[in-house]
């Protein structure tokens, strides 16, 4: 007996289509309609724009977006992570990697952060050395004949109580 495999494809909650493995799709796939792919196309368009400035209406037309809400979702996220800034209601500007002044500013910030990391690593090394020195001294105190015989007295002396 031969069986034919039938897949249930649910592109939206409103409409259900049955599709066999032999059928060719006439509508775009989920990947082609995905927000991730639209975001990549939008960022490419934005980076190619003169001075990184883009009109959102032009972008929506250029990307053939039926719902402008998707463009606004993308811009809100990109603005939230600091890659773009809104110049006015429908105009945005790229502040990411391809913006010349931003790149110099980011490079300076990276340089400062690397210097801070080096300084913190040096401080960490010094603290590790001090910790090792203290551990060795505590070990010597515990095994020294006088301090091991009178530990309570040593405790009082070390705390300034005698």
UniProtKB/TrEMBL annotation:
Coiled coil: 103-137
Main location (coarse class): nucleus
Assigned keywords, A-Z: Coiled coil, DNA-binding, Nucleus, Transcription, Transcription regulation
Domain of life: Eukaryota
InterPro entries: E2F, E2F-DP_heterodim, E2F_WHTH_DNA-bd_dom, WH-like_DNA-bd_sf, WH_DNA-bd_sf
GO cellular component term of the entry, any: RNA polymerase II transcription regulator complex
Location of the E2F/DP family winged-helix DNA-binding domain: 30-96
Locations listed in the record: Nucleus
GO molecular function annotation: DNA-binding transcription factor activity, RNA polymerase II-specific; RNA polymerase II cis-regulatory region sequence-specific DNA binding
TM helices/strands, residue ranges: none
Family, similarity comment: Belongs to the E2F/DP family.
UniProt protein name: E2F/DP family winged-helix DNA-binding domain-containing protein
Taxonomic source organism: Perca fluviatilis
Higher taxonomy: Eukaryota, Metazoa, Chordata, Craniata, Vertebrata
